[in-house]
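Good morning,

Attaching, inline, the backbone tokens for the sequence recovery test we're adding to the shared suite. The designed sequence is right after.
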């Protein structure tokens, strides 16, 4: 089968999510060792791997549903629930922990209403504590949508979130670098 482009999968997802899942599984030909790439493609297409998708993948690929579930729950790269518009990861490695990561996490929870591992009530923010982001010299560190912010103090969290909210609004409005919200 011809490999489908990411854009084609997104269109197919909008029309019929089951067909998108079928195309992803077919792309990998149910080769041995294809479970992780199939799950990665599903997450990249849908933003998460819904539990009911595992049954469909199992039926199409012959990979045991229990094996797929084990993979999704073992590897931190996979999510079984949708995330908010903005993913905030707070490093809690040793350097960040000592530099105040817990207070930064608390400030984010207070500002967004998101609990650790959860999404804010308005669906804008998902908060995750992570073991290490590899930026120890910038502790404490957070990433928002894969953009890194270093030496973040709890009292700066509101400013960072307002900046992120402005960027999200700019994208919705179709702005390309020139739009700013006050």
């Amino acid at each position: 089968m011809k490999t489908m482009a990411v854009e084609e999968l997104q269109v197919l997802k909008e029309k019929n999510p089951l067909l998108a899942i079928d195309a992803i599984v077919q792309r990998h030909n149910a080769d041995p060792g294809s479970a992780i790439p199939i799950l990665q493609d599903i997450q990249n297409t849908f933003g998460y791997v819904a539990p009911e998708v595992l049954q469909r993948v199992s039926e199409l690929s012959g990979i045991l549903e229990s094996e797929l579930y084990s993979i999704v729950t073992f590897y931190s790269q996979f999510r079984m629930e949708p995330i908010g518009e903005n993913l905030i990861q707070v490093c809690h490695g040793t350097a960040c922990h000592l530099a105040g990561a817990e207070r930064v996490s608390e400030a984010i929870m207070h500002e967004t209403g998101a609990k650790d591992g959860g999404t804010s009530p308005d669906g804008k923010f998902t908060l995750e504590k992570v073991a290490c982001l590899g930026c120890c010299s910038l502790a404490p560190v957070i990433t928002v949508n894969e953009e890194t912010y270093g030496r973040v103090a709890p009292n700066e969290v509101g400013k960072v979130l307002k900046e992120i909210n402005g960027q999200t609004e700019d994208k919705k409005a179709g702005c390309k670098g020139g739009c700013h919200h006050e």
